[in-house]
Amino acid sequence: xxxxxTSLYKAKYWRIIVPMALLMIFSGAVKAQQxxxxxxxxxxxxxxxxxxxxxxxxxxxxxxxTATNASGMFALIVPAANANDxxxxxxxxxxxxxxxxxxLRDAVDRTFELEKSSRELGEVTIVYYDADKILQKAISRxxxxxxxxxxxxxxxxxxxxxNDKGPLQLSEAVFDVYNxxxxxxxxxxxxLVRARNEKNDRDFSFVELGQRPNSVFEEDIINHRPASxxxxxxGIKKHxxxxxxxxxxxxxxxxxxxxxxxPGEKDEIYRGRIYIDKKTDAFIYFDFTPSPSQEGDMxxxxxIKRSIVRxxxxxxxxxxxxTIVGYQQIGQEWVLSSVSGDHLLYLDAPAQNAEMDASIKFxxxxxxxxxxAKESFSSALSRNDNINAHSSDVxxxxxxxxxxxxxxxDTEGIFKQLQEINKSMKEKSK
Length: 430
What we know:
The chain is mainly β.
């Protein structure tokens, strides 16, 4: 059995960089938008100057924003209409930084330092908090706390599969999701804006990973609570919840609720942490993994199960899985902000005489929110349509006109490498 090697990221095409070509396209796209401008930079801890991954970088409470990559780097397009708004940079347990965008026009590679929160919230007497009551109150307030009318989320996702021999598959898409409201039972609608996908047909022919509109929808835990393994009515019964702290969460005073499976529970159980805004009782963050007893249970992890587009006589074992889902506040209401996943699978394809470990990284970032949307989409992909089947652009121009979620690796180099592998295979077959 092969194992994932940390040397993978030391290879030339895995470096954590912002390619110059990408920045040139980014700048070109901004110039094409009257009055818009670009900001790029790095977010670090003021204490030790270490980069802060997954730090939130947003334009006030407008819903326009992105997140930092593993190196703390980000890039953002500021629309002309928001030129006089405020840039909000935040991370868990650190003091939120608010900066006037007018002072940051065309700022490139600027470093932003976040200090430890001055709030001494950890000294509260945690024993007096009843986690079950806090949880039930947060559930009961979902219709009030989350946007409860039609709105459109502009989203971006990247799915990357690789092992110690190189890349296996890379998919990206820009899309719109129309949500009728968090208390509305009508199904979300999905409109694909642009997508690209390349798969290593030499080493990964027996399986294809991807996303369908339905799988994208279900990443929103609050909007699809019954599908959650720990927040559904049945899931709550299987887990024990405990308030372990009250913290500064991106500028919000929040309950920190840890959970794990109850003794004796064996099926579809998780361990993790939930943050609940103390003021509004809104769920704002989920961080979870399958319980250790579930390792190897392929049916446990909904994300991987939903991401299998095609497989042929394939044995699959889940070795590791970690998912994070975050929400953002728009005005007085909340809405999905981001989803990230880090998974490790063991794949066994006897017919191809192949076995391997495969790491799968997934990022889904909401880059803008339109709360004034009056009508749903006139045309949309069906809920189970494979987004990869609608690949429209594999060039670096893919990014034009969109806020950028920087990767932790050279995506353009990986796309080219996958294309070269497949081209070489075709030439040999001739």
